[in-house]
Amino acid sequence: MAVRVGVIGAGWIGQDHIRRLTETVTGAQVTAVTDIDAARAGEAAARVGARVPADGGELIAADDVDAVLVTSWGPTHAEHVLNAIAAGKPVFCEKPLATTAEDCLKIVEAEMAHGRRLVQVGFMRRYDTGYRQLKQVIDSGRIGEPLIVHCAHRNPTVPQSYTSDMAALDTAVHEIDVLRWLLDDEIISTQVITPRATSKRFEHLKDPQIMLFETAKGVRIDLEVFVNCQYGYDIQCETVGEEGLVRLPDPAAVGVRTAARHSTEVLTDWVGRFRDAFDTEFREWITALTAGDEPTGPSAWDGYAATVVSNATVAARQSGRVIGTDMKPRPGFYATRGLV
Ligand SMILES: NC(=O)c1ccc[n+]([C@@H]2O[C@H](COP(=O)([O-])OP(=O)(O)OC[C@H]3O[C@@H](n4cnc5c(N)ncnc54)[C@H](O)[C@@H]3O)[C@@H](O)[C@H]2O)c1
Ligand SMILES: O[C@H]1[C@H](O)[C@@H](O)[C@H](O)[C@@H](O)[C@H]1O
Questions:
Q1: pLDDT tens-place string over residues 111-131
Q2: Which of 5, 74, 227, 318 is deepest in the core (most CB within 10 A)?
Q3: Per the database record, which ranges form the Gfo/Idh/MocA-like oxidoreductase C-terminal domain (predicted)?
Q4: pLDDT (average), residues 219-224
Q5: DSSP 123-162
């Protein structure tokens, strides 16, 4: 029987995941959709023949919901995830798991008290083929011990509602998660440098920003976040080791030669860049649930770690200082969980 999924939040990514669960992933059925915008929930639900419960609480309690997908705004995630754990239902939560470390720890404690993993966080880069290849090379030891990582996260533009804090909370949070996973290491300090701002931004915004992270093993990471780069959606990651380096491949694109020029297309949004990763992420989630297994993807602990580092990075930019991340020790419950 298909896993019956209830979706809380029918905005941009909620609708995309509803489509994915309905058209791309086998073994899943979206049975309920809710949103504080009732009309939006109604339209999204009607497209897949789902019901519209009044709110997240009603949806989580419903008999026709086996698993919950949280795609509402970040500050609302903790409440829905805690309700799902209390109901003993698996819950996939888009990033961030919660906006404060305290709320993330409440989720971690509730899950440990339940005794079994229920939570997966939507850090889809761990499912990207290029990042998986990068990890294989690093883990194989071919480039020796990693020493330095150079990253760039560029968006062509962002809406006016995007704030300078979001460069860490919304954008860099992907690198924060994927680098912890790639290097099997923790980020212990963070610093932000703000170069000359681009003129092609809203006045309130510090853009670009350079974030500097240090890991427990002493690896240094520089990350350029540039969300009004104009030219495309561009994700770069290069790890330098003692004996070589490994670089994230650009997405495959045909090379065109014409009029004395050779060109390849650059993608323009994250939807296209990570489409396959999102598909794999949900396929693996539904496969685990169908088998009655715990989810294998990024865990509540990974969600906690990412929130600690992204919040510290906001504090680092605001204060102009190097900020320690002050992370709790990882409980044994999560020692082998969330490694994908
Ligand atoms: N993994 C990724 O790359 C990725 C990409 C985009 C967004 N996201 C995350 O997904 C989440 C949603 O982002 P979005 O771009 O779809 O935003 P959005 O604003 O388009 O959609 C959010 C929807 O949630 C609804 N909502 C808010 N609070 C609610 C509540 N308590 N109960 C029910 N509905 C509620 C809103 O009315 C809205 O329709 C965010 O946390 C965002 O960071 C992740
Ligand atoms: O919410 C989006 C999304 O997470 C994208 O993957 C990221 O590139 C954007 O910067 C962010 O605003």
A1: 999 999 999 999 999 999 999
A2: 5
A3: 135-323
A4: 98
A5: -GGGG-HHHHHHHHHHHHTTT-SEEEEEEEEE-S---TT-
The bound ligand whose nearest atom lies closest to the alpha carbon of 78 is 1
13 alpha carbon, closest ligand: 1
Q: Whose CA is nearest to atom 34 of ligand 1?
A: 35
Pocket of ligand 2 (CB under 6 A): 155, 170-171, 174, 227, 270
Closest CA to ligand 2's atom 7 = 171
pLDDT (tens digit, 9 = 90+) per residue, 164-213? 999 999 999 999 999 999 999 999 999 999 999 999 999 999 999 999 99
Span from the CA of 66 to the centroid of ligand 2 (angstroms): 29
Rounded Cα gap, residues 85 and 98, in angstroms: 14
What confidence score (pLDDT) does residue 19 get? 98
Q: Is 222 within 8 Å of 237 (Cβ atoms)?
A: no
Domains and CATH numbers, the chain: 3-125+276-299 (3.40.50.720), 127-268+306-324 (3.30.360.10)
The ligand whose atoms approach the alpha carbon of 159 most closely is: 2
